[in-house]
Specification:
3 helices
Length: about 90
């Protein structure tokens, strides 16, 4: 569980970093980072390990960073695409 949390947190962080260039990835990266953070928290409660601690730290960073890109770039893309659909 700790390894899965770390992997998902890293994928969420990558989605947040690339989310500025491809905003759709921030929409995908936010839930992935959040799930990675939750899995790492559960793994920390079951038993402390280095992988669980790393997953927790990366999960916190990924969740915060991806939330910023999600609410700035991701929501903007959704609004623009909805507006373009209304014009057609």
């Amino acid at each position: 569980m700790a390894a899965a949390g770390l992997v998902l947190a890293i994928l969420g962080l990558i989605g947040g970093l690339i989310g500025f260039a491809v905003p759709v990835l921030s929409l995908i990266g936010f839930p992935v980072a959040l799930i990675g953070l939750i899995l790492s928290c559960v793994a920390m409660k079951r038993g402390k390990s280095g992988v669980a601690t790393a997953g927790l730290v990366v999960g916190i960073i990924a969740t915060v960073f991806t939330a910023i890109t999600f609410f700035t770039c991701g929501i903007c893309v959704l609004c623009v695409s909805a507006g373009a659909g209304a014009l057609a």
